[in-house]
Design a protein that fits this description.
Helices cover 67% and strands 0% of the residues. It is mainly α.
Amino acid sequence: MGIAQEHEIHKRRLGRNLGVGLALGSFVAIVFGMTVVKVKRGDEMRSYEHVRPAEQELSK
């Protein structure tokens, strides 16, 4: 036996869930896009965490 009549709160909840889903989906798309761009420009990706600050100035 299903719900015979949909209550107003179900409609509001559906709208809110769609809004949260779209916001989450757009956030994931932005992060994915930024990751793709950063990976494509791989020559500029460097991590200087293992280098002391004085050595960073010399390497430039």
